[in-house]
Design brief:
By secondary structure, the chain is an alpha+beta fold. The chain contains 13 helices and 14 strands. The strands form 2 sheets. Strands 6, 7, 8, 9, 10, 11, 12, 13 and 14 form a 9-stranded mixed sheet that branches.
Length: 424
């Protein structure tokens, strides 16, 4: 069969989907500069596809310009077309960053942290998902049987990640039926978010080639176990030295890490709308689902919003400091990794800038928002979030999510979960 290789350039948008356009690979040299044509209202495509509301109308032109550092080309060697795509920046036609570009939002957050503290953040996204190629059996949680029956899917996924320049860390059967988890090596913020997008797409690509799906929906079924995205992060100084650990600090946290964590907790009522941005996200964030329900930080507790992670087999202080990290657990794959990590960093940077302190451990923790509507109201009222987004992006985000809510209003949880399982 006559074939010509194509390349896709896209961005992971408000809905957490990768959208863009493709072109012949022979055009790549010119596309590196001019990218592909895009328009403002494309940002307003909901998780379900249609644009239900937009502040932009039908006018305006933009470009998605491929980032050479975010190229992936993986040949699965099965006769299928290679997975060849770039993640890119949304730019105005003069080449300046568009104010609503998700990657630019994360870049601004990284800059805010550097301005507040001189520090940078490294992160890794821990993804949970359901692989439909596995038979559902009782007692499969973390089992060798579930690991065995996924066949070559895990090997294919790990090989695809490595071929794409990403260093895999783990692949395992998780607690829920047919649920798996994949993690990769931590990287600086923008690269970590790129890796999160690529990891999801490689899981989908590997599953597709085996005739199945990788489902990342926060709640595939209403009475089941949810899929979270846990963001592990730590702080580094300009030399790369770890700055998160202090054995004399509260929960073993350095002063900067304490203030960063306090900022995250202070802004969680608002940023939950960014990190857990679907109606079904809030079906997961309920008791007895191994998911957070309160705005708290706890040492080694998987029910906390912020978890201070353990360090294994590290006897020297420098080894502990290098491995020490926190885990943000109020996140799922309906979120764009750029927006989720950007919101986390902006909140932490504000905590450092204002020298915030952690809440008293004896006090009752404030509950997380109980619905996306409540979280969006908190986001809309936040002056800090407004300053991070800017008026245009903030309006676009709120209108996008509220139009999505209106579209699914009235659906009962089983149907709601089924709809989101179809698209994530």
């Amino acid at each position: 069969m006559l074939r010509e290789e194509l390349i896709f350039v896209g961005t992971c948008d408000i809905a957490g989907h990768v959208r863009g356009k493709g072109f012949p690979a022979s055009e790549l040299p010119s596309r590196r500069k001019k990218g592909i044509g895009w328009t403002h209202s494309n940002l307003m495509q909901t998780a379900f596809g249609p644009i239900y509301d937009t502040p932009f109308g039908t006018g305006g032109d933009l470009m998605i310009v491929p980032d050479p550092s975010a190229e992936l080309r993986v040949d699965f060697a099965d006769g299928s077309a290679p997975e060849h795509f770039f993640l890119g920046n949304i730019e105005n036609t003069d080449g300046s960053p568009w104010e609503c570009c998700p990657r630019e939002f994360l870049r601004r957050a990284v800059h805010a942290l550097k301005e507040a503290s001189g520090l940078e953040l490294i992160a890794s996204f821990e993804h949970e998902f359901v692989y439909t190629g596995n038979e559902e059996r009782p007692g499969d949680a973390y089992s060798l049987g579930a690991f065995r029956r996924q066949g070559v899917f895990g090997e294919s996924l790990v090989a695809a990640l490595r071929a794409g320049g990403i260093e895999p860390d783990s692949f395992l059967p998780e607690y829920g039926p047919r649920q798996f988890e994949v993690t990769v090596k931590p990287e600086p913020a923008l690269k970590a978010a790129d890796q999160a997008v690529i990891t999801r797409e490689m899981a989908r690509a590997a599953a597709f080639r085996l005739g199945h799906r990788a489902i990342f929906s926060p709640m595939p079924v209403a009475d089941g176990v949810g899929n979270g995205v846990h963001i592990h992060f730590s702080l580094r100084d300009a030399s790369g030295a770890p700055q998160t650990y202090d054995p004399a600090g509260p929960l073993g946290l350095s002063q900067a890490a304490t203030q960063f964590a306090a900022g995250v907790l202070a802004h969680l009522p608002a940023i939950a709308a960014i990190t857990a941005p679907s109606p079904v996200s809030y079906l997961r964030l309920t008791p007895n689902r191994w998911a957070p329900t309160a705005i708290d930080i706890v040492k080694q507790d998987r029910g906390a919003a912020l978890r201070v992670c353990p360090v294994f087999a590290a006897s020297k202080k420098k080894d502990i400091a290098k491995a020490f990290n926190l885990e943000f657990r109020v996140c799922d794959a309906s979120a764009s990794p750029y927006l989720a990590l950007g919101a986390l960093i902006f909140a932490g940077a504000d905590g450092i800038a204002r020298k915030l302190v952690l809440p008293e451990p004896e006090g009752a923790a404030q509950p997380l928002p109980r619905s996306l509507s409540q979280a969006l109201d908190g986001m809309a009222k936040s002056e800090a979030v407004a300053s991070w987004f800017g008026p245009t992006f903030l309006e676009a985000y709120l209108r996008h999510k509220r139009s999505e809510l209106a579209h699914v209003a009235g659906l009962e949880p089983p149907e709601l979960c089924a709809r989101y399982a179809e698209i994530y």
